[in-house]
Write a sequence for this structure.
C-alpha cells in the first residue's frame, strides 16, 4: 500500500480496521513488528520548500535522504545532525528516506556539537490513528509553536503516526575540516582524551574511539579558525600520546559503524555515561566495540542471542538491540511511570492500535 498524497493516506487510516507496518526505505527499522499490511511512504516525496537564505527546508517524508543531501550540497549547506547510513550494518538495500531518519531520530558523530535530528526539526505534519492530519511547529525557525510535539515524533519509530512532512533548520557546509588522531590508547584513557577535547573551548564536532584503529577528534569551520584549533587541540591531546592528523573519511566509518559490516553477530547500541563506557564494554565481553559521542554512544558486536541487558546489569543508560533476533525485546524496557506515559500517548494518537503493533510496547 503506497498512498500518493497526504489526503489519500489520511483516508486509508480513517477507514482502517487492521494494523499497518510502516515503511520508508526499509533501511534502518529495528525490532519485531506484529502482523499488518505494509504501508509505504515513498509516494509522499519531494522538496516542498527550500530557502537557502533562510537556512530552512521543508520536505515530504518519503523523499530519499540522498536527494535531500544533494539539493543541500548544491547550495553549500547540510543537515546539521549527520544522519547515518545503516544499510551496510543491517545488511539491507534500498534508499533511506527523510521520514525514516526522523522516525529513528538518526544522528551521527556531529551530534556532540549540533544536537540530534530532533534538535534540527522546526515543524512536522503527520496522520494520526484516526486519520486526522496534524500540523505542529512551523516552516521557519522563529515559529516554534508546539515544539515539544515536533520533538516527540522524532524517535517514535512510527508508533504514534505516519509522518508526511518535516521542516528543518540547516547549517552552511564548513569551509574546512580537520581530524586529529591519538593511537594506542586503552578504552578508558581514550574516553578521557575525548572528554578533554570536548571540554575545551575549541568547538569539537566529533569525538570517537575505534579500538585498534585510534582515537579521533574533529574540528570544522573557516580555514584560519580550524588551523588555530588544530594547534590548540594538539596541545590538549598530547598528554595522552602522540598526535597526528588523520583522513577525514574516518567519520563516515564511525557514522555508519563500518567496522561491523559483514561480520556475524548481534549489534547493540548503548547510550551511557561516558565515564562508565569502558567499564561496560569490558563487562559485555563483546567481539568488537566502537565509541562515538565522546563515549556517550557505544556500538557493540556480540555473539548471536546474547542477552546483553542481563549481562550488563543495571547501569545509567540503556541498551537497544539494533541487529539480531534474540529472545529479549529490541527496545529497552521503560520504568513504570514512563511506560504509563507512553501508553497514554499511544492511546491518544493511535486509539485503534494501527501503527507498528508490538514495537516499543505498541499494541
Amino acid at each position: 500500500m503506497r498512498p500518493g498524497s497526504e489526503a489519500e493516506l489520511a483516508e486509508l487510516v480513517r477507514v482502517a480496521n487492521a494494523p499497518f507496518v510502516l515503511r520508508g526505505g526499509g533501511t534502518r527499522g529495528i525490532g519485531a513488528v506484529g502482523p499488518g499490511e505494509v504501508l509505504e511512504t515513498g509516494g509522499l516525496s519531494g522538496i516542498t520548500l527550500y530557502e537557502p537564505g533562510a537556512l530552512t527546508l521543508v520536505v515530504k517524508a518519503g523523499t530519499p535522504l540522498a536527494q535531500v543531501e544533494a539539493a543541500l550540497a548544491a547550495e553549500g549547506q547540510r543537515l546539521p545532525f549527520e544522519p547515518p547510513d545503516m544499510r551496510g550494518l543491517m545488511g539491507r538495500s534500498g534508499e533511506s528516506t527523510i521520514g525514516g531518519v526522523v522516525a529513528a531520530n538518526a544522528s551521527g558523530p556531529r551530534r556532540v556539537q549540533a544536537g540530534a535530528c530532533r534538535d534540527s526539526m522546526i515543524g512536522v505534519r503527520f496522520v494520526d490513528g484516526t486519520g486526522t492530519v496534524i500540523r505542529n511547529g512551523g516552516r521557519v525557525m522563529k515559529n516554534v509553536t508546539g515544539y515539544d510535539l515536533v520533538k516527540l515524533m522524532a524517535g517514535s519509530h512510527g508508533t504514534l503516526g505516519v509522518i508526511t512532512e518535516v521542516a528543518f533548520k540547516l547549517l552552511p557546509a564548513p569551509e574546512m575540516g580537520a581530524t586529529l588522531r591519538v593511537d594506542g590508547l586503552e578504552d578508558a584513557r581514550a574516553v578521557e582524551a575525548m572528554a578533554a577535547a570536548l571540554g575545551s573551548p575549541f568547538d569539537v564536532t566529533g569525538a570517537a574511539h575505534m579500538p585498534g584503529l585510534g582515537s579521533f577528534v574533529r574540528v570544522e569551520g573557516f580555514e584560519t579558525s580550524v588551523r588555530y584549533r588544530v594547534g590548540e587541540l594538539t596541545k590538549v591531546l598530547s598528554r595522552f600520546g602522540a598526535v597526528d592528523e588523520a583522513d577525514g573519511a574516518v567519520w563516515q566509518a564511525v557514522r555508519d559503524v563500518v567496522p561491523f559490516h559483514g561480520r556475524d553477530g548481534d549489534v547493540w547500541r548503548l547510550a551511557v555515561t561516558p565515564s562508565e563506557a569502558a567499564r561496560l564494554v569490558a563487562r559485555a565481553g563483546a567481539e568488537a566495540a566502537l565509541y562515538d559521542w565522546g563515549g556517550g554512544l557505544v556500538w557493540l558486536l556480540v555473539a548471536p542471542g546474547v542477552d546483553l541487558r542481563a549481562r550488563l546489569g543495571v547501569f545509567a543508560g540503556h541498551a537497544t538491540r539494533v541487529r539480531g533476533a534474540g529472545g529479549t525485546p529490541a527496545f529497552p524496557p521503560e520504568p513504570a511511570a514512563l511506560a504509563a506515559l507512553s501508553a497514554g500517548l499511544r492511546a491518544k494518537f493511535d486509539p485503534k492500535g494501527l501503527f507498528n503493533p508490538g514495537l516499543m510496547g505498541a499494541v
In short: The chain has three domains: 6-172+340-361, 176-255, 258-323. Residues 14 and 157 are 20 Å apart (CA to CA). The chain has a mean pLDDT of 94.
